Amino acid sequence: MDKLLSIKEIVPDMQDWSCKVIVQEKQQVTQSLSTPTKKQKFIFVDAEGSKVEGIIFNHDIARVGPILQVYKKYRIANAVVRPIHPKYQTAELTIQWVLTSKTVIEEDADDEDIMPVKFNCTQFTDLAQYMDHKDKSVGMYVVYYTYIMNFGLEQLLQERFPFTDVLGIVIEAQDSRIINKNFKESVVQKFVLVNEQSQTVMLSMWDDFIKNEGQQILSDIHNYPVIICRRLKVSNYNGVALSTWFDSAILVDPPVQEARELKNWAMRNTNLLAAIIDEKSYIKYNPNMSVKADQKITLISNVRPSQKNIWVKARFSFQHIFQKYWYMSCKKCCRGTAAADGVIFMCNTCKEKHPAQPRCRFDIDLCDHTGAITASVFGEQAEKLLTFTAFEIMDHFKQNIELPLEAVHNELESKWFLVHIKPVQTQMADAKQRYTIIYYSEVLDTNVVQSPTQCKSDTLLIDLQADTATTNTSGSAPVKETKPASKARQCLTEKLELLADESNSSSHSATESSKKKAKLI
């Protein structure tokens, strides 16, 4: 091991070599679903900045894995050198060292403590371009997701994107919780990241990441640890959110220049970071993270359940949808419950005891000149649109008094909205596809939407009682024009007609007040 070679000088099948490297990444142990093979990957970097992939298999993981720690330097000799399969290669990684219990590995003491590595960090405001792409992650890979359940994970990586990374300060950690994911029990814990622009994003760590990097972060969280996250999944939770997956890497306080500069900024701005924690603005939707000046808009007729990140420009209409406008929920997780208002109960979803409280929720038809779909709006956004709080709505319901919404409906007739929606994954009883409104804002410049001459209001505000309208064309006989009625509304219409038939055949004493609606059960 006297003569040291650089990573570039070590070629496949070479023997009797040694190299001095730094462990840049130490990934989690993974297992292919189609084979019993287990593996753990590393990324090594030398003084020139060249990189190579290290890999350990099966029983050697327990023997060799603990020796190699991130950011430490080692002299490695006589590992098996082989090329990475061409379809798994990147511009940085083309060669793989297979480490076994026979490989010579010696820790090297060196005064130099900065890794000769440059990271291509993505700004928080640019993360939305990766949102909910099963074929794209912040970091690199194009993956054919549908193969995950059928083949080993190595067979998924068809092509790799150039590296792009996320750099942030961890300012808070939420409690971990157990959830069922893909018919398997998993543990998830959310961490709050902030950058120098005081922008925040939530990072969800799963399973082994919590045991390893998560515990390391928690033990030093009061000192604002800086992390570099690689190959993360981006979702649309609260605008933009990050999540680990099998090939992610979390580097905690890495010895690189940009991380140390950010750490220094954090230490000089502790009051600002404390204020962000107190305000907890990161739990709310942040449109600045997800709405772009040139936001791509999807016509409603082109909306598909397979889309995960959908923006539409539409009018709102719900005056003919017979609904309750609220439900009783868990105060923490907002899941529905049969508990009474204010009663503390054990929630079956979040597995914690919390009081029950009413939450606003109702369905809206989103309409443009191409069609209509039904979406549900929840919480504060629903209250803002309805102009009533959940407690006021519940009070009206319990007194059997109809909500006075005439002014709301009249205002909505002339308004357009930019709406961020996502498909509901749970199949509803009537087999109709539902959507959830994540965010909406009024569009003040109507020129950017359909002009009134291009989009007639009578095709947007759908009559629940009739799906067609009569129009005259150049003096000819009246012609029936189809209106873009949503399927969910049509289903609701059928249910209302059935309720009316049942009501007429029942007791004649059911007319207590012409000004009151029958209570929903």
Question: SSE layout and pairings?
Answer:
Elements: E1 18-26, E2 30-31, E3 38-45, E4 51-57, H1 60-64, E5 73-77, E6 80-83, E7 95-99, E8 104-107, E9 141-143, E10 157-160, E11 165-173, E12 177-181, E13 184-194, E14 200-206, H2 208-218, E15 226-230, E16 233-235, E17 241-243, E18 249-252, H3 257-268, H4 270-279, H5 287-290, E19 310-317, E20 326-330, E21 344-346, E22 353-368, E23 371-378, H6 379-386, H7 390-398, H8 406-412, E24 416-423, E25 435-443, H9 457-460, E26 468-471, E27 479-482, H10 487-505
Parallel strand pairs: 4-7, 14-17, 23-25
Antiparallel strand pairs: 1-3, 1-5, 2-3, 3-4, 5-8, 6-7, 9-10, 11-13, 11-15, 12-13, 13-14, 15-18, 16-17, 19-22, 19-24, 20-22, 21-22, 22-23, 24-25, 26-27
What would you note in describing this structure?
- This protein has 521 residues and is α+β, with helices and mostly antiparallel strands.
- It has three domains: 3-107, OB fold (Dihydrolipoamide Acetyltransferase, E2P), CATH 2.40.50.140; 127-132 and 158-283, OB fold (Dihydrolipoamide Acetyltransferase, E2P) (Beta Barrel), CATH 2.40.50; 300-442, Nucleic acid-binding proteins (OB fold (Dihydrolipoamide Acetyltransferase, E2P)), CATH 2.40.50.140.
- It has ten helices and 27 strands.
- The chain has helices at 60-64, 208-218, 257-268, 270-279, 287-290, 379-386, 390-398, 406-412, 457-460, 487-505, and strands spanning 18-26, 30-31, 38-45, 51-57, 73-77, 80-83, 95-99, 104-107, 141-143, 157-160, 165-173, 177-181, 184-194, 200-206, 226-230, 233-235, 241-243, 249-252, 310-317, 326-330, 344-346, 353-368, 371-378, 416-423, 435-443, 468-471, 479-482.
- Strands 1, 2, 3, 4, 5, 6, 7 and 8 form an eight-stranded mixed β-sheet that branches.
- Mean pLDDT is 80; it is low at 140-163, 448-483 and 495-521.
